[in-house]
């Protein structure tokens, strides 16, 4: 069993199937994880996600040991490490949960081919989503590229087959896990530093996932309204756990479904389920249209000419570092840089600001988020950026341009989120804080706006005119 983005030992499709097969064959299941160097080599030493994985693996190993097994964690290129490990263990087959990221698909194809050559099988299961690949299509059998029809088809299919939410049990009594001692390299051995995850409010592993879900459930009913305000802890903070599989999406949906049946999920329950469906929507977009990794979903948007050169580089640096002079944008970027999380409303505001106020290619912002977000997920990040840039499927129209001041007035009215990250604005009133340049002398340590929104807006409309012309 090769664990990747599924770091748990319950409700686990591949582990379930591996154990069933082992029981039938009278065999045993070895559990492995690879710190995959083609991925890790790109990351800074203090990457929070690697620390999260490291801590989650320690918990997973302990859990597997409790079930009679152990965990072998290796460091190297998974394309060679996995076939070599399979050979060393004389494994008949390798079990995984499917990953729909194009790079992961290519890696898995290489591993599967190497295994096959040695007479070993490679079995991949659906686990991280309820519906994968082409399971939800239009009536004409085509991928759905607009969210609402996708969501309706998704819900219909789930209602027709409630079994899709059934757990894949890992039966502790019948577990056929190979006994042994876990081997887990220290972070330093794989070239990374310890990170204080607790300081950024993250508890790793299955325990962290369970705690986050428990803490969220009482807030579920109010989610529909609370979710838009970054100063309010109204969302689940489960994205990181969904990313690394320290929660089971089936378990989340079963629990919310049960609450809804008892009338205890309020309006928030259905809205929250919609968000999980957005996640699957983008996963299937990536699967069917892998070109979105580099290009606009709507090709005409690749005709837009972005700002480039030293001036654009300086604007980009100011955006990354949270010194644009727009408090909500800056506070959001500081939240990202310091914690690795950013509230969804702020992801929309900052992405829009980069693309439509600074005129910078969405791919640069996407890459920055990919480096910094703890919950970085190629499908959702790309989908979110292309939504903001208007180049994506079901994106906001190009002429809709967020005003960073009115967004701030609306979603952080009293400025409490801003003040948390920008204490130099603490003395500004709720009226002043959204546009400090209108209160001269009150925020001497805070930069002037790097761009004038009204002017930028006109430039953006002109920039996007090629889209209208080419559409
Ligand atoms: P909740 O509001 O509690 O939502 C529950 C879950 O639904 C989330 O954990 C997430 O898995 C899923 N979800 C919620 N909103 C979306 C959405 N718009 N698209 C896809 N899935 C969603 N999400 C990521 O998981 N990884 C990313 O790399 C990522 N990048 C983004 C980039 C941009 C520009 C934008 C606009 C959005 C991005 N999102 C991304 C979506 C969303 O912002 C986060 O999922 C959400 O903020 C995570 O917080 P939460 O777990 O408290 O979410």
From TrEMBL:
The keyword Flavoprotein applies. Keywords: Chromophore, FAD, Flavoprotein. It comes from the Bacteria. InterPro entries: Crypto/Photolyase_FAD-like_sf, Crypto/Photolyase_N_sf, Cryptochr/Photolyase_FAD-bd, Cryptochrome/DNA_photolyase_1, DNA_photolyase_1_CS_C, DNA_photolyase_N, Rossmann-like_a/b/a_fold. Pfam families: DNA_photolyase, FAD_binding_7. Gene3D superfamilies: 1.25.40.80, DNA Cyclobutane Dipyrimidine Photolyase, subunit A, domain 3, HUPs. Coiled coil: none annotated. Its cofactor is FAD; (6R)-5,10-methylene-5,6,7,8-tetrahydrofolate. Residues 1-130 form the Photolyase/cryptochrome alpha/beta domain. The keyword tRNA-binding does not apply. Belongs to the DNA photolyase family. This is Deoxyribodipyrimidine photo-lyase. It comes from Pseudoduganella buxea.
């Amino acid at each position: 069993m090769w664990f990747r983005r599924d770091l748990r030992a319950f409700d686990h499709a591949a582990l379930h199937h591996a154990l069933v097969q082992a029981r039938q064959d009278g065999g045993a299941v070895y559990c492995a994880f690879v710190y995959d160097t083609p991925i890790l080599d790109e990351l800074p030493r203090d990457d929070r996600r690697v620390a999260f994985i490291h801590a989650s693996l320690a918990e997973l190993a302990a859990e597997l040991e409790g079930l009679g097994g152990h965990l072998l964690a290796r460091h190297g290129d998974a394309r060679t490490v996995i076939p070599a490990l399979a050979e060393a263990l004389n494994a008949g087959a390798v079990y995984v949960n499917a990953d729909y990221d194009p790079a992961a698909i290519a890696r898995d194809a290489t591993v599967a081919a190497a295994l096959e050559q040695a007479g070993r099988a490679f079995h991949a299961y659906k686990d991280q989503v309820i519906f994968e690949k082409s399971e939800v299509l239009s009536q004409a059998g085509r991928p759905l590229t607009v969210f609402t029809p996708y969501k309706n088809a998704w819900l219909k299919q789930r209602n027709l087959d409630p079994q899709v939410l059934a757990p894949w049990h890992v039966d502790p009594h019948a577990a056929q896990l190979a006994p042994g001692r876990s081997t887990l390299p220290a972070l330093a051995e794989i070239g990374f530093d310890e990170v204080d995850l607790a300081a950024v409010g993250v508890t790793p592993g299955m325990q962290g996932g369970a705690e986050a879900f428990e803490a969220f459930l009482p807030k579920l009913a109010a989610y529909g309204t609370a979710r838009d305000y970054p100063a309010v802890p109204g969302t689940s903070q489960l994205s990181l756990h969904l990313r690394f599989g320290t929660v089971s999406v089936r378990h989340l949906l079963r629990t919310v479904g049960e609450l809804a049946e008892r009338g205890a999920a309020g309006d928030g329950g259905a809205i929250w389920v919609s968000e999980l469906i957005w996640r699957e929507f983008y996963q299937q977009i990536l699967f069917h249209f892998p070109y979105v990794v580099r290009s606009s979903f709507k090709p005409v948007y690749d005709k837009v000419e972005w700002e480039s050169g030293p001036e654009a580089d300086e604007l980009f640096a100011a955006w990354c570092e949270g010194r644009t002079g727009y408090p909500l944008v800056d506070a959001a970027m500081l939240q990202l840089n310091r914690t690795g999380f950013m509230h969804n409303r702020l992801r929309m505001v900052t992405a829009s600001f980069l693309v439509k106020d600074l005129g910078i290619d969405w791919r640069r912002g996407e890459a920055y988020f990919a480096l910094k977000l703890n919950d970085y997920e190629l499908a959702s990040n790309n989908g979110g950026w292309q939504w903001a840039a208007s180049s994506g499927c079901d994106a906001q129209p190009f002429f809709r341009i967020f005003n960073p001041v009115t967004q701030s007035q609306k979603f952080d009215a009293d400025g409490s989120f801003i003040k948390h990250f920008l204490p130099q604005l603490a003395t500004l009133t709720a009226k002043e804080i959204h546009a400090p340049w209108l209160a001269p002398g009150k925020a001497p340590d805070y930069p002037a706006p790097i761009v004038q929104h009204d002017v930028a807006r006109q430039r953006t409309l002109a920039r996007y005119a090629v889209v209208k012309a080419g559409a």
